[in-house]
Design goal:
The complex is a heterodimer of chains A (about 180) and B (about 550).
Chain A (H helix, E strand, L loop, with lengths): L7 H19 L2 H17 L10 H14 L8 H9 L9 H6 L2 H11 L3 H11 L5 H8 L3 H28 L1 H5 L4
Chain B lengths: L3 H10 L15 H7 L6 H11 L5 H25 L12 H14 L3 H5 L6 H4 L9 H10 L3 E12 L4 E10 L11 E11 L2 E6 L14 H16 L4 H4 L13 H17 L12 E5 L2 E6 L2 E9 L2 H4 L4 E5 L6 E5 L3 E5 L5 E5 L20 E5 L3 E6 L5 E6 L6 E5 L5 E5 L5 E5 L5 E5 L5 E8 L5 E7 L18 E7 L5 E7 L1 E6 L5 E8 L2 E8 L6 E5 L8 E3 L6
Antiparallel strand pairs in B: 1-2, 2-3, 3-4, 5-6, 5-27, 6-7, 8-9, 9-10, 10-11, 12-13, 13-14, 15-16, 16-17, 17-18, 19-20, 20-21, 21-22, 23-24, 24-25, 25-26
The chains are: A mainly alpha (about 180), B alpha+beta (about 550).
């Protein structure tokens, strides 16, 4: 049985909240709805490819991830859309509304996160925010479980290293905290 | 200083949306989205109807309760995490996973830095050999340039001790583009790794590897020796750079690596035939499907040949945009990366780095029929540039704004363009004069124009309904019904030949048939039809990847 045997509305009902949350965590609010809608549009068009059961949500996350990172662009809208997509960074440091409510440590952590390779960032986010298992992350990103384990192991180390590096820099150059020239 | 566990806990706390209960509880976001006329499309409307035709019933209410319960558990989990419980800790990779990751990086993706991150000691101390190259990075670049591909990698523990584990990895490789010549893979090669505390501390490369230079089915007899002989015959001036000594010693240097890649590409192309890597595309309809070009026989859709895209453009969104008249050069277009040409050796060259935005889903014929020039455009100017070096060779100023990119005529002496009001015009490049072929207002939403190879007609891919100024032509999210039209080059007489959700089309070399891609609401089809629109047949359905450009190879098959 594949997802194609389950009515689309049931898949939507069951997972739209998680997928919307996934999009909100990664995209600016003014484009979240576009990404969300395109994700389910693709899901609808690929109904017969949707895996059943526990694999459905990771599959939807995978679609949303690709929508976020491989936006198709139309011709006439190029300039406007490019500007729009430039706001679509997968790094959450680009989310000002969230930055404002987050504390210093969280902001610095997100900055450190943005220094990692995009796939490693996503592995960490899927672990911490979507709370996916390594097998589910592998399914989402289309890589092996072994690769996820290996990369998660290395990415956690690098995240801490990068955070500590930023912290040292902040301490060494206090003027940088104020945004002043030095 | 924070630990990995503390960093992960901070990441959990930095979740921008920790509580999903604040999100659109009615689940009507899609409906709201669709209410925006700028985002509405026929397909989305159908999607909406699928959603809203399923009003909340007992099952949905039950799901909401279940979702609420799950949410409560998630929130409780977050609270527990924030109150001091450890975030989930990743398992240390197994020795087999570590060794596998090393080989995949070192010999597969040629990412030496990633590979070395799996080492617990310096590369030299681990026993890694650079095989005569100055360093590992150089060796990796040589392997990449000479078409090394890792296949059938398998690792297993062969000896386990309390302090360390020995992992044996067996793999085959394609070398010198052997896969593209239908040869290889070669091997097996067996590498042994000693892994301690999650890190590789020792590498024994090529353990048990036996190279038989006399084996007629081996790498030496099949490629190494013939290539060296070909080099001696065709490029003797390069031998000193590439070999040390010729013919068995390889010189791996900054200077020699690109030359190795270039000469091997030429050798592979020569082995294939006059059209090189495009031999398998002769007379066929070519489109991109993921990392490959596919060439389908219009008369036998079950016959499909594949051509690997050059490595440098595999990860791009380039789509096919036409051939040179001799079939030796393939034009590709990407709105971000500009214009590329893949030649008969399979090498890709970028010829125009900045288009200023355009062309997604439109495969306008920007490559001149003789394969030496490209078409570019500004607001009111047609620009012709030399592919070799990019120098502008001609500018033709128009008395109106260009709406879309111009296309070459098959004689190379004329260009068709779209002007204001979607009028169609023809420019004579010899005289620099232009004439109107179709006046403003006849067409709405033109996606593409394509000149027939016999020079007598323009094929127009257009929509039925007017588009707003800021249309979303992305058919993936906004398929629109339209039609294919033929316009007579001499008198502008226009007739519709087919209806559908067409986004791009290409002529057969003899101008008797048309291939087109149809993004209808139920899927994506590559179709072929007679030039009068009759005899439509589907050649491929729902192909993956960039199923957005199509080009018919101009040289007939054998």
């Amino acid at each position: 049985m594949t997802g194609g045997d389950v009515p689309f509305c049931e898949i939507y009902d069951r997972f739209h909240r998680q997928v919307y949350a996934y999009c909100r965590r990664r995209a600016r609010r003014d484009v979240v709805e576009d990404v969300f809608a395109e994700t389910f549009l693709i899901a609808w068009r690929k109904m017969e490819e949707i895996p059943p059961g526990d694999q459905t949500l990771p599959w939807l996350y995978g679609v949303a991830y690709r929508v976020l990172t491989h936006q198709w662009r139309s011709a006439f809208r190029h300039q406007r859309l490019t500007e729009k997509l430039s706001l679509l960074g997968v790094t959450p440091v680009d989310l000002p509304e969230d930055m404002m409510i987050a504390g210093h440590e969280q902001r610095q952590l997100l900055t450190a996160l943005s220094a990692l390779r995009p796939t490693d960032q996503e592995i960490l986010r899927l672990t911490a925010w979507e709370e996916l298992s390594q097998a589910e992350i592998a399914s989402t990103l289309g890589i092996t479980v072994g690769a996820v384990r290996q990369r998660l192991y290395a990415a956690r180390k690098k995240l801490a290293t990068e955070y500590n590096r930023l912290e040292r820099r902040r301490t060494d150059f206090p003027a940088a905290q104020k945004g002043g020239a030095w | 200083m924070i630990t990995e566990e503390q960093a992960m806990r901070l990441l959990v706390e930095a979740n921008p949306v920790p509580d999903m209960s604040t999100l659109d509880p009615s689940g009507d976001l899609l409906t709201t989205h669709l209410a925006d006329p700028n985002k509405r499309s026929s397909e989305m409307t159908q999607l909406k109807s699928r959603q809203t035709d399923n009003p909340p019933g007992p099952r949905r209410r039950r799901l909401i309760w279940v979702a609420a319960a799950v949410l409560a558990i998630v929130v409780a989990g977050v609270v527990l995490t924030q109150t001091g419980d450890e975030a989930p800790v990743a398992d240390t990779p197994s020795p087999v996973e570590t060794a596998t990751a090393f080989i995949e990086a070192y010999r597969g993706s040629f990412d030496v830095d990633e590979a070395f991150s799996y080492l617990g000691v310096a590369p030299v101390a681990a026993g890694l050999d650079t095989s005569g190259a100055a360093d590992h990075h150089l060796l990796a670049r040589f392997r990449e340039a000479t078409g090394t591909k890792l296949v059938d990698l398998q690792c297993e523990e062969t000896n386990f001790a309390s302090e360390s584990t020995v992992v044996s990895c067996t793999y085959m490789t394609h070398d010198f583009f052997s896969d593209e010549m239908g040869l290889g893979p070669y091997g097996p090669t067996v590498d042994e790794f000693t892994v301690a505390d999650g890190k590789i501390v020792s590498v024994a490369e090529g353990v048990g590897d036996v190279v038989d230079f006399s084996d007629p089915g081996g790498f030496s007899k099949q490629i190494l020796e013939p290539f060296a002989a070909w080099m001696g015959e065709n490029h003797p001036q390069d031998l000193d750079v590439m070999y040390d000594p010729y013919p068995n010693g390889w010189n791996i240097t900054e200077e020699s690596i690109p030359l190795w890649g270039q000469r091997l590409r030429e050798y592979v192309a020569d082995q294939a035939g006059p059209l090189g890597v495009f031999e398998s595309a002769r007379g066929l309809i070519v489109f991109r499907d993921g990392s490959q070009l596919k060439a389908v026989d219009p008369d036998d859709p079950s016959s499909v040949n594949t051509i690997d895209l050059p490595r440098e453009i595999v990860a791009t969104e380039l789509m096919v945009a036409g051939w040179s008249a001799d079939g030796s050069k393939l034009a590709l277009t990407d709105e971000d990366r500009g214009l590329y040409v893949v030649d008969r050796t399979g090498s890709a060259v970028q010829v125009a780095p900045d288009l200023g935005g355009c062309c997604a889903f439109v495969t306008h014929a920007w490559l001149s029929p003789d394969g030496t020039k490209g078409l570019d455009a500004t607001n009111n100017e047609i620009v012709i540039f030399d592919l070799d070096g990019g120098a502008v060779t001609q500018r033709v100023e128009l008395d109106q704004q260009l709406r879309w990119w111009p296309v070459w005529a098959p004689d190379g002496a004329q260009v068709a363009f779209q002007g204001e009001g979607e009028a169609l015009g023809i420019v004579d490049l010899v005289t620099g004069t232009s004439r109107e072929l179709i006046g403003p207002g006849r067409f709405v939403g033109i996606r593409q124009i394509a000149w027939s190879p016999d020079g007598s007609q323009l094929l127009v891919v257009a929509l039925h309904d007017p588009l707003p100024f800021d249309p979303d032509l992305n058919p993936l999210v906004n398929p629109r019904q339209g039609a294919l039209y033929l316009v007579d080059i001499d008198d502008g007489e226009t007739r519709q030949i087919a209806e559908g959700y067409y986004v791009t089309a290409a002529w057969s070399p003899d101008s008797t048939r048309i291939a087109a891609i149809d993004y209808h609401p139920d899927g994506r089809d590559l179709v072929v039809m007679n030039a009068d629109g009759t005899g439509l047949r589907v050649l491929a359905e729902k192909a993956g990847g960039l199923f957005t450009g199509v080009a018919w190879h101009p040289v007939p098959g054998p």
